[in-house]
Amino acid sequence: MSRKYYIESPKYGVNVFLEINHTLILGVIIIPICWICLYYFSGYYRNIHRKSRLNDFIQTLSVTFIGALFIFFFLILDDVIINYKNYYDSFYRLILYHFTLTLLLRFIITSFTNYKIHHNKIRFNTLVIGNNGEAVNCLKELNSRFDSANGNYFVGYVEMNNPHPKHNLSKYIPRLGRFDDLNDIIEKQKIEEVVIAIEPGNNDDIITILDKLDFTDVSIKATYGLYDDIKGKAKVKTLFGTSLIEVAHDLIPPWQQNVKQLIDIVVALFSVLILSPLFIFLIICIKITSRGPIFFRQVRIGKYGKPFTLFKFRSMSEDAEKEGPRLSRKDDDRMTSFGKFMRRTKLDELPNFFNVLLGNMSLVGPRPERQYYIDEIIKKAPHYIHLLKVKPGITSLGQVKFGYAECVDEMIMRLRYDIIYLENMSIFLDFKILFYTIFTVMKGKGV
Q1: Run of H or E residues at 135
Q2: How crowded is residue 219: how many other Cβ atoms within 10 Å of its Cβ?
């Protein structure tokens, strides 16, 4: 409408009206979908109940600018103009209209949501870690101050070590159990937020708590007195209006997480469709060359320690583990003749793409293990638990740099590469690992 009135009408000397045709209808459908996708990839739709008006303003402005640039270069740049100033006019109007209308609606929604949170109509099950004066004071403040209300519904608490009878939190909220049972308590009580309220200076306790919480998908906060203790161990930010700090445990920015997930789905779906003739060929060969099922199914441990069923083409005899769990070896006598070929070429792992489509796995990530071997590894290398922060992958840095592990000690040696991956996680690194995997498989070395 704006371009018809301000640009085309003066150019042609007559009033140009908006014509409803298939191009307009298509644009009205596609462009809003593109805006929604752009906001999704920016991470705007994560934690929708935890938005602030300032956050709405900043995210909406940044995404509006990026989206307007795309629309300008793809749709406006070759449109009708009177002079070059029309380009600036179209670009600024597009930003103004989209930003103003979107932000206005978001301010209304965010204000309404915050109102419901402040009046306890939206509440988040919250667990306190600690049982000292700091914990008691924190609980009292959060329950008494309207301006710091964050919708916390305190379900109970756990304490690190010995009880503190002097500052017994059980007068206010129930004790839910021991710290060792933290993850079970979080799952059973449907905890959405954890507040760390232990005595400052207990670095070992802080590390232990953060390690435990990395195994979960809860929002983490801590009393402000722990700022210096946590600062060097995780990303922290001050929460305006409260005596709490927020502890971030995302390994990569939200937009990269969303892009990574999109790449996983697109590549897995494309691979299944394109390789379907190969799937059929392998199914026939497996059936002809050995007895037993076509697919090998095994329970593995995924993100946050949740078990899932891994799918592979069967490369071993049907009774391969009748004597108990055993890792495969280079010249494993349990492998079928055709299974050796599939193992060497990695064709046995093609059904992993179904796990990616089901959301259990990613293209790149630490290889999933069985609980039996995870327990064995953790005895010698407790930091293995960090790998459960992310989805397991079809390929990994550990596999391309180290390869198959034939015993627990080798699994621990491979672990150091997977830890390096976690510390340097990015979309760019994922692409490097994928290309290296393809190159290695094409050379016939396997990974």
Answers
A1: helix 133-144
A2: 20
pTM of the model as a whole: 0.74
Indicate the DSSP class of residue 200: T
d(CA 70, CA 93): 14
User: What is the residue-level pLDDT of the chain in tens, covering all 447 positions?
Assistant: 565 555 655 555 556 556 677 776 887 888 899 999 999 888 888 877 777 788 889 889 999 999 988 887 877 666 655 566 677 777 888 899 899 999 999 999 988 988 888 777 888 999 999 887 778 888 887 776 544 457 888 899 998 765 555 567 888 889 898 888 888 899 899 999 999 988 887 778 888 888 888 778 888 888 888 887 787 666 676 655 567 888 877 778 888 888 999 999 999 999 999 999 999 999 999 999 888 889 999 999 999 889 999 999 998 887 666 666 667 766 677 888 888 888 888 899 999 999 999 999 999 999 999 999 999 999 998 888 888 889 999 999 988 888 878 888 889 999 999 999 988 899 999 999 999 888 877 776 555
Every domain of the chain and the residues it spans? 2-118, 124-249, 255-442
Determine which helix (DSSP H) or strand (DSSP E) holds 312, and give its type and residue range. strand 307-313
Residue (of 325, 399, 321) closest to 367 by Cα position: 399
Distance in angstroms (rounded) separating the CA atoms of residues 202 and 223: 13
Locate 433 and state its tokens: 């690992």
Q: How far is CA 331 from CA 190, 315, 321, in A?
A: 47, 13, 16
Please name the fold of domain 124-249: Rossmann fold (3.40.50)
Contact 159, 175 (CB under 8 A): yes
